[in-house]
Amino acid sequence: METITATYAHENDDWTITVSGRGEERTAKAPGIIAARDRADQLVDELAPDGRPTVVHLLNGSALEFTSSYMAARLTLPDIEPLEVPPSGSSKPAAAVAPAAAKPQLPPSKQLPKEVEDRKAEETPDVPTSKPTVSPRA
């Protein structure tokens, strides 16, 4: 069985993936190493639709460097703001206590006009914040 090689190159914010094997070569771009790895799988499927061949992933000619970079990206948590927990006995719903900065900000081109946001806020029903009780199994 022939080995298929997936070679990764980091260019600015994008990754270029070149998959070669079985006398053919495919190239694609992806926005990050995780997306690049997924795209490599798609390219491998194009080269070997009849099965799952052995694939060697290389970054700068090294499988170890690829694995290290890929796993670091997979295991790194995104930066998020800490969750504010209301004091016990508080009757305010959690959404009312959360800071305004926690609301995701869209780019201006994707934001709704203020009138639409105001109307959506008026039409949004109050959602109960109590948790359902679960009885123990017998």
UniProtKB/TrEMBL annotation:
Biased composition annotated in UniProt, kind: Basic and acidic residues: 112-123
Superkingdom classification of source: Bacteria
Region span, Disordered:
81-138
Compositionally biased, Low complexity: which spans?
A: 86-111
What protein name does the entry list? Answer: Uncharacterized protein
Species source reads Amycolatopsis carbonis
